[in-house]
Amino acid sequence: MKQWEAWSVHLSTILVGGTGLVYAWMRYVLEPVDPYAVVNHPLQPQVQHLHVLFAPLLVFAAGLIWKNHVWMHWKKGVPSGRKTGLLLLFNLVPMVASGYLIQTTVTEGWRTTWIVVHCLASGLWILGHGAHAWVASRRKRERTSRRDDPVEVPAPS
């Protein structure tokens, strides 16, 4: 995978995950100052809009790395990072689909269901992405250190 492709996934995860966490904190943790307020924080609508606007960047980034990273590793059976990579792969669809369904569902029961699914899937995505990036960086360091090890040349006899 190219460096800019990896950073597109990292950056989009930070943007979408960060705005999602801030929005969830505003929506479900904060109490409104005014008992008649519609929102719990004055910036809550803007954070929600940013989250919805950044989400397609993550979907695009995931699609960008599909062929040259995800599918290639799957076909080759690459063992390192496979568990966290599979977590991300199988978590992407419920995260994206539930995010879409939250916005289009009109009944309260289904809306609550999609919110729960979205929060769980998004939390798993953030944790899985962090774990996957950590495994990849550790693997890269190991390859670099093996390459930089001095080669022992046998002494002439």
Give the topology, please.
Blueprint: H1 3-28, H2 44-64, H3 66-76, H4 82-104, H5 108-148
Helix pairs in contact: 1-2, 1-5, 4-5
What attributes does this structure have?
mainly alpha, 5 helices, 0% strand, elongated, 78% helix
Structural class: mainly alpha
What's the β-strand tally?
0
Give the distance, in angstroms, between the N- and C-terminal Cα atoms.
46 Å
Poorly predicted residue ranges:
none
How can the largest sheet be summarized?
A: none
Give a concise summary.
By secondary structure, the chain is mostly helical.
Question: How does this structure look, described?
Answer:
With 157 residues, the protein is mainly alpha-helical. α1 packs antiparallel against α2. Helices cover 78% and strands 0% of the residues.
